[in-house]
Amino acid sequence: MNNPFLPLNESARLTALSKYCILDTQTEQEFDDLAHLASEICGTPISAISFIDENRHWTKSLVGLAIDAVNSIPREVSFCAHTILSTETLVVPDTKTDERFAAHPLVEAENPIRFYAGTPLITPQGLAVGALCVVDTVPRQLSQEQLNSLVRLGRQAVALLENRLAEMRLKRSEEHLRCVIEASNDGMWDWDIATDVVTWSERIYAILGLSPEHFSPTFASQLALVHPDDIQLVLNAVERHLQAGEPYNLRVRYRHCDGHYLTILAQGQLQRDTDGQPSHMLGSFSDLTHLMQVEAEREERSREILAIWESMTDAFFSIDRHWRFTHVNRTAGEIWEMVPAELIGRSIWDVFPAAVGTEIQGQYTLAMDTRMPVEFEAFYSPKNAWREIHAYPSSVGLSVYFRDITERKNTEEALRRSESLFRNLIDNSWDAFHLVAPTGEILYESPAVTRMLGYLPEEMVGHSAFEFVHPDDFHFLTDDVADLLATPGSMRIVQLRIRHKDGDWRWVESCDVNLLSHPDVGAIAVNYRDITERKHAEEERDRFFTTSLDMLGIVGMDGYFKRLNPAFSAILGYSEA
Length: 577
Fold this sequence. Notes:
Elements: H1 10-20, H2 29-42, E1 46-52, E2 56-63, H3 67-70, E3 72-74, H4 80-83, E4 90-92, E5 115-122, E6 128-136, H5 144-183, E7 187-192, E8 197-200, H6 202-208, H7 219-223, H8 231-244, E9 248-255, E10 261-272, E11 278-287, H9 289-294, H10 298-311, E12 315-320, E13 325-328, H11 330-336, H12 340-343, H13 348-351, H14 359-370, E14 374-380, E15 385-394, E16 397-404, H15 406-417, H16 419-427, E17 432-436, E18 442-445, H17 448-453, H18 457-460, H19 474-486, E19 491-499, E20 505-515, E21 523-530, H20 532-547, E22 553-555, E23 561-564, H21 566-572
Antiparallel strand pairs: 1-2, 1-6, 2-3, 4-5, 5-6, 7-8, 7-11, 9-10, 10-11, 12-13, 12-16, 14-15, 15-16, 17-18, 17-21, 19-20, 20-21, 22-23
């Protein structure tokens, strides 16, 4: 008997199986029905739906045998553990004549397995987590129609897994939403327009220092709490919302029970009855007083951020929604050979007219329109230079980090022209480069690693690349390698932390290419660079996003918010959930 090998993507496969939470669950009618269908279509007395865990074969549904008898067996004696090694259906017409199974204990049993056919259960990500199989005690063959049906039933089993996963995620989402609502610091209100009765949540009473026993809100009594200078503002906003459908969203000063005024963000939405007539207004009540108190700190924080931008080695500039420069750091000025202060207020397209109509303008416009970051490389012909550009949109414009990569692009072109020159340039490149075997062993390391990570090349060659990866990023590399091994010629770009010889962790951006099938390479080629400073700058940018008192959000191409900053949540009462 031959024990089954482990798949190359075993780690990712086990992770995929784990996320379904299917192991050791009770029987389910939907899975049992599929197993019965498989047995009936293929004309076999036995069928099963099983999953292959790290050390065992676990059966979810079984026809023809008592499930307690074979619910869990060692992986090494599992027929299905062989099935998951391929994307094709495994058919064994006669186990006695197949060297893999001839000496198998279940083949030599009193009621032996003499026929086996199993189709792998492959997830949408291409990972085989188990198998749907049919078994007989006598040798036999299946028709092509039966085999096709077995494959289709396998796909239905995977669809059931995906449905279970979706239901679990929905339940978690609903629970999360419930917790968010309960933990919200905002109040909720409901104005019955016909009766003029206003219902407040407990939070509104707490914000204003009132109690339900001593205050019964109506529209008029609530309006009496508004600062005299803001009353007409509220009346006008309500009228425009009821008559013209304009958004009801305004800052209003409300009197606390002790006499001082709070700044409140009041939001509301009209509800109509079945006849289309206004019936209710529902809304939120958010105390912005604390936020108003800390707005004075914003300028100081902005100055700190500007100081960081000036200290960066990467070039940086920002532009407003009208394409006018609002900041240009020293490095950008040096690259452009311009004085940064003289660019402020000028249009980027007036300063660089040759960029109009190029990819640079197209990518900046895309980022500005979609509010989604873009990263790209572009050639600027007037300077005969290549740029690596990262552009991050915001509500006020665009923040752009870039570096001159002309030397790198010229190097790449030279590498394409000459194989001998390739090795020479690799050995002197600013970026580091190494070749890695499928096992992870480093076969070659460029001298640039000494500058970047402090190691001599010979100190890394022969070691596993995994030894140098930060524990929290280990899965990125393992998943990357698994994906690469699955597709010859494929490329993956991953960012992760690598241990410097001095013990510190450095962020690198790694471009990995599967060249295992290349006759002159036969390895995974990895080009990586130190992006530690850029990561720190991005962290500062994210800190600005998080601490900004302006409402900032990122909207996807589908029109849904992908990210909201705390100010957005505090002002409008929404959260990322």
